[in-house]
TrEMBL record, chain B:
Principal place of residence: membrane
Protein name: ABC transporter permease
Single GO cellular component term: plasma membrane
Similarity remark: Belongs to the binding-protein-dependent transport system permease family.
Taxonomic superkingdom: Bacteria
Amino acid sequence: MFHFKSNTGFFKKTAIVGIVTALSLSLAACSGDSDQSASGSKDSKISIIVTNGKGEIDAQFKQTAKDFMAENKDINVQVESVAVGDPMNVFDKLTASGKTVTMAMFSPFDATHKYKEVGMDLSGEKWNEETNDAIKSEDGTIIGFPFAIEGMGLVYNKQVVEKAVGGEFDPYSINTQDKFKELLDKIKSSGVEYPVAYQTEAWSVSNHYSSLFLNQSEDPNTVLKEVTDGKFDYMKNDVWNGYYNTMDILASEEYNKFGKRPTGQYYDAAHVAVGNGDSAILFNGNWAFDSLKALEGSDFGFMPVPVDNDPENPLNNKIIAGPTQALVINKKATEEQQDAAKKFLDWLVYGEAGQDFIVNKSQIISAFKNNPNKVTNPLGIAISDALVENKTLPFSTNYINTGDWTTILGPEVQKYIAKQSSRADLAKAFENYYKSNKE
Amino acid sequence: MMKKRKNLGDIGNSALFLGPTLLFFSMTVLLPFAYGLFLTFNKMDTPADPVQFAGLLNYISAINDQEFWKSMWLTVRFVVATVFFVNLVGFGLAYLVTSGLRIQNTLRTAYFTPNLIGGLVLGYIWQFIFVQSLPALGTKLGISWLELGWLGDPTMAFWSLVIVTIWQTSGYMMIIFIAGLISVPKELIEAAKIDGAGPLKRLLNVTLPLMVPSFVVTVFLSLKNAFMVYDLNFALTAGGPYGTTKMVSMHVVNKAFIESNYGTGQAEAIILFIIVAIVTGVQVYTSKKMEVQA
């Protein structure tokens, strides 16, 4: 009996081992298969792999690649999009599996930091004439093609503001903190109890708002260098303090719909309030439009975030706009592949179908002045107008490590907003972060 | 001869019954777990980085990560609160719907339904309730402590998480308790009644001891769920206000994928796994000892 039992055990174990082996073999076989199919390129055609970091325009991107291939029969473009919400970069995945991505879409920060070895020099490209937003490496070489422009500032509801000021409203007329307060008071006396609906998502108060001070030098890298070297004195810096003075106004009990308890998941509530006119102003970017759930016939625009009371200060007269996605051509690709990728970029800038793909099909604000199309989103229109009129400052968020800022500094800024810490504490938190993060 | 055939049949049986489960268990749990464990001994910023041996470096930085232990302590408090209330409410509901009410079947369905809604959806629904509905109600009725959004206050945000967890999971525990309650032999209850035990005595001295097997399961499930909570945390409070409700799973995800510190994040996940395994192991072992035979 005993003998029999132990035998069964042995066979059970064998079965388990067998199954596990079979399983791992089948897994290995799977990965082997996919490798094979990708490397097999078509004889005379030049094959390039392009990664698309904006998963939401996957279909449009693939369609435009098809259109491009129809015009350029000798090039085969394979588009690889990230899945929305996938934390792993599609570039890493493809590279890890042994493929060479010819052209990759990165955030400008990644393009100049994590992947700084990837991008080749694009300074000689013709499209540089049409844009001021190409991505430069630290030594000033152009390495990135600005694919999408986004912008931010104080979003306002035109109807509510115009009613308060009694007529046409020029957002750029609000170029000092005093004028801004005056406007808020006017809105209040027009019957809107709380003119501001300030939402305090971590990424918004840190990555977006708290990076604005980098724009005090013409090239944000200059200030950033001081910051990363630990030489920046936050408390003595007028611009840094100025932005938090403005934040105090935005979050105050007097003006803010949520002022009595300013932090606490108000993103939707704030956007709906400004969208339907219960409030007038919030801080966000052009993507806010989707959340505003605007009433029919209402219109929105951007005004600059005032930092002090000097009407001549450019920071008070411009909104933030810049590339948030960049295309980078891989140094490791063959020359033929690089040329094919450059051709694709030219097609996006100069080709009618390429221009149409960027703006009309994908609703992306173009970085190129020669693109005649306009997006339909009123906040996007405000940004493309500002670009044409030269009323934009660099997109300061591009210069910081957004991952760390969201999770490490975001809560610190929220703490300041909720009056759980002083401004000196906040300055200390920034200092400590850069001290512990020397790179 | 006979013996051999029997053994062969055994292999077939094992493969038939164990095979599919084992296949999927290996694919979704065992292999990723082993690979994940392997990765903690390497220096990696993202899961796709080239593998580079780093010894115990990731574990050292995980143990030195104060935020990790802060969120762990918060999670422990969350575990205590939810395990207690989920089981209390779950048992109460089960007692209610087995007590012979006329609408008890409808009630069972009603109490169980929240469990069918995913944590993310639930989080966004309750966010609306805590941020907009309750304050609106508070303003209308003049209840001052209700007038402000709950999720902006650390204590209220914490209890919001607990409340939603209770609402979501006690219906599920109720089902397990119902099965336990029904299997308590009627004659034992009757015998106790004849001996003069009141309703409370009958509950404490007869029903509850016989329900221990159910409690083993429900406490285990609610422990594990509470330690691992992520989706609800993400959708309801996002760790806010100012990072005060960031549970340990959220900290691990942030570390590994948002701050691009995959090695450390993965090591923290392993530490979390070990802690949860020990806690639940001790719980199952000790409470099994409390089981009694009818």
